[in-house]
Amino acid sequence: MANSSIALIYGTDTNNTEEVGHKIAKQWEELGEQVDLFNIKDIELGQLEQYSMLILGIPTWDFGGIQSDWEDIGDDLANLTLEDTVIALYGLGDQFGYGDYFVDAMGWLYEKLLPTGATFIGQWSTEGYEFEASRACVHNKEHFIGLAIDEDQQFELTDQRIEQWVIQLYAERAVEAA
Ligand SMILES: Cc1cc2nc3c(=O)[nH]c(=O)nc-3n(C[C@H](O)[C@H](O)[C@H](O)COP(=O)(O)O)c2cc1C
To answer: Quick count: other Cβ atoms within 10 Å of Cβ 24?
Structure first.
């Protein structure tokens, strides 16, 4: 059985997405909620169905490419039963280095999870970012489908973005549960 109702699952090549995951979990703990943290390569996919909320983190690599551990299980995601699950996504990327593909993999993950019937929360404004294109954009480029974090170019904004996003998630989840 799961220890808490929220799981945060990340994939990472150089640990940035893991570190951001720890910060997000710590922020939830400050709001009084425990978060189970996993690397996607270490879990059975079925474990995801045990939680009422999933926070999923993914970095983008190699011009819109998918972090390899997520890519390995990508086709299995659609088979999960997540109708009663709330999902929030976060993506790591580099907006100046890869401005035509900024946090693309977060958009890929969203597309892969759409057939599961999950409810998505945590859209994030694109204000304050500079990029040309992103597969993770919705609403005519006004929002990302989840939180975009740029540890390469805007690391000084990471903590405040996380704090604000977690408060937003807390409120949005309450609306979904009502
Ligand atoms: C070779 C290389 C390719 C990258 N490609 C992209 C990309 O296409 N889009 C993007 O937004 N970021 C890209 N990035 C930036 C990474 O996503 C960013 O450094 C991220 O924080 C890495 O996360 P991780 O440490 O969890 O693997 C790339 C970085 C490198 C070094």
So the answer is: 26
